């Protein structure tokens, strides 16, 4: 049976490229190619820009409330097609359907709905200056580029297009080459909902296509999600014409479990923050600091639950709660970190090997892995692994753990477990991270701004401030009296 080939999505429909260049996409749970995708060649790139210019002219002059109505239709379609879209995400990413079914599409739709609701609330200001006055207008930027990672492909496309479109911009989105289909499905939904042609275009390909977006002079802003090292390159290219940037990058986030914590709850958080989406989540709490007095009970419960509650297998099986890593290369990278952990003296308590479950024997699985006896200088404690690998560290003192938790160039997220409310807030206020949880981990509602401190990012996604970052302020000074001129 021949496999389908998808094309770039430009101006409300699929557009064939001229070069005939394609790439293939592999299902991580089977290791088999499932479809091909055409690369956005020069012809497609040119069309994408011309179309986005035309789309922007139309969309930006519609009233915000008209945009709200159209975006809300897209939200309804996303929710209606939840199961179909969740399946697309499972086949592309290898994550379990039990997650994709209730998280990926839903949280994407929530964000578009949130920004659709906010669109008509954007106000300018007016201020009197003597007998003159000025007012300000919030105007759209123009064409914004979105570049996405492979772990939450559809959700990332929604999180970038939602505020961009609500503010009246056009968006050209490039998904990761490993997970290209979700963005096409979103584009089809936008078109069906009535978003004018050219307002949301999807270009496909690897780094070169991303690079083209970041250097193109017609693009005003780049919102990027991916690795820190790629983010630096993107920011550098974006500087060529001083594009605005939002950077959602990697993390090595701490979870601090104090002696008065509810240990079972803290174990739940640590497992969620290391094994959900088989560990491929940017905010993961991969450095788990546990107070010495609860260390043993924490580790005992963690190991017992890890050894008995994980079900790896065909991610389309609703019982499965551990999926396959995105690719063979990525699995090898995760395994190489595990080897380094062993070599550098950490104790491997569980996992550390590949899995070959009966229902998905050729998938790129890695068993949930827990290291103890970790020290702050170990590679597994310092570097983002992006797989199901948890490092547990012991601490004795509040100030000690705060400074150890902050001893990293990254600052995406952090969590604290304590029943002492003063301590919980006191500690969280001293952690240098943008997304923080107290007695919780991982929830990220549309209303809450998210983004990193230090090298974990620039700017925010979600929350009210994000809509502002897709607009620019125009000040208009109005003279009410004759100009006093010395000339
Ligand atoms: P990458 O940085 O490898 O890629 C991200 C995107 O950038 C992909 O679409 C990629 O294309 C593209 N790209 C690669 N090189 C360039 C370039 N020079 N110029 C422009 N675009 C380029 O990240 P991953 O896809 O591997 O994603 C994992 C990373 O994403 C982790 O570090 C994770 O922490 C981070 N992440 C951060 C989140 C946050 O909100 N802070 C959320 C999710 C993930 P292609 O893949 O096709 O080569």
TrEMBL record:
Gene3D superfamilies: Aldehyde Dehydrogenase, Chain A, domain 1 (3.40.605.10), Aldehyde Dehydrogenase, Chain A, domain 2 (3.40.309.10). It comes from the Bacteria. Residues 18-476 form the Aldehyde dehydrogenase domain. InterPro entries: Ald_DH/histidinol_DH, Ald_DH_C, Ald_DH_CS_CYS, Ald_DH_CS_GLU, Ald_DH_N, Aldehyde_DH_dom. The keyword Metal-binding applies. The active site is at residue 248. The keyword Transferase does not apply. Pfam families: Aldedh. Its EC number is 1.2.1.8. CDD domains: ALDH_F9_TMBADH (cd07090). GO terms for molecular function: betaine-aldehyde dehydrogenase (NAD+) activity; metal ion binding. It catalyses: betaine aldehyde + NADP(+) + H2O = glycine betaine + NADPH + 2 H(+); betaine aldehyde + NAD(+) + H2O = glycine betaine + NADH + 2 H(+). Keywords: Metal-binding, NAD, Oxidation, Oxidoreductase, Potassium. Dimer of dimers. NCBIfam families: PRK13252.1. Belongs to the aldehyde dehydrogenase family. This is Betaine-aldehyde dehydrogenase. It comes from Alteromonas genovensis.
């Amino acid at each position: 049976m021949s496999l389908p080939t998808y094309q770039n999505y430009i101006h409300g429909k699929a557009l064939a490229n001229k070069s005939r260049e394609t790439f293939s996409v592999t299902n991580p749970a089977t290791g088999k190619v499932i479809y091909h995708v055409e690369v956005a060649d020069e012809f497609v790139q040119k069309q994408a820009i011309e179309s986005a210019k035309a789309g922007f002219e139309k969309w930006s002059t519609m009233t915000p409330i008209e945009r709200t109505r159209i975006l809300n239709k897209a939200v309804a379609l996303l929710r209606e097609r939840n199961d179909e879209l969740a399946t697309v995400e499972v086949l592309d990413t290898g994550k379990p359907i039990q997650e994709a079914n209730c998280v990926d599409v839903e949280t994407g739709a929530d964000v578009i709905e949130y920004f659709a609701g906010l669109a008509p609330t954007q106000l300018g200001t007016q201020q009197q200056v003597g007998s003159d006055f000025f007012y300000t207008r919030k105007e759209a930027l123009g064409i914004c580029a979105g570049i996405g990672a492979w772990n939450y492909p559809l959700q990332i496309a929604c999180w970038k297009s939602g505020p961009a479109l609500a503010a009246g911009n056009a968006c050209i989105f490039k998904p990761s080459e490993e997970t290209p289909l979700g963005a096409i499905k979103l584009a089809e939904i936008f078109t069906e909902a009535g978003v004018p042609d050219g307002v949301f275009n999807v270009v496909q390909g690897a780094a070169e296509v991303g690079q083209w977006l970041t250097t193109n002079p017609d693009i005003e802003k780049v919102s990027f999600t991916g690795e820190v090292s790629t983010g630096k390159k993107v920011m550098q290219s974006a500087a060529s014409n001083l594009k605005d940037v939002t950077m959602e990058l990697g993390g090595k986030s701490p979870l601090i479990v104090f002696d008065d914590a509810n240990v079972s709850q803290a174990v739940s958080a640590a497992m969620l923050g290391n094994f959900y989406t088989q560990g491929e989540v940017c905010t993961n709490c991969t450095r788990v600091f546990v107070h010495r007095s609860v260390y043993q009970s924490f580790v005992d419960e963690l190991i017992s639950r890890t050894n008995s509650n994980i079900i790896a297998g065909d991610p389309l099986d609703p019982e499965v709660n551990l999926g396959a890593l995105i690719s063979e290369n990525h699995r090898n990278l995760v395994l190489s970190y595990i080897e380094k952990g062993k070599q550098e003296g950490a104790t491997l308590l569980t996992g550390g090997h590949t899995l070959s479950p009966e229902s998905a024997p050729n998938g790129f699985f890695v068993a949930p892995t827990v290291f103890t006896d970790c020290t702050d200088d170990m590679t597994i404690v310092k570097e983002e692994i992006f797989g199901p690998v948890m490092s547990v560290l012991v601490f004795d003192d509040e100030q000690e753990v705060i400074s150890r938790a902050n001893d990293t160039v990254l600052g995406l997220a952090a969590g604290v477990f304590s029943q002492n409310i003063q301590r919980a807030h006191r500690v969280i206020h001293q952690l240098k991270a943008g997304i923080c949880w107290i007695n919780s981990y991982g929830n990220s509602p549309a209303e809450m701004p998210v983004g990193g401190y230090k090298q974990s990012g620039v700017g925010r996604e979600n929350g009210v401030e994000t809509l502002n970052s897709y607009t620019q302020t125009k000040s208009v000074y109005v003279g009410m009296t004759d100009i006093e001129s010395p000339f």
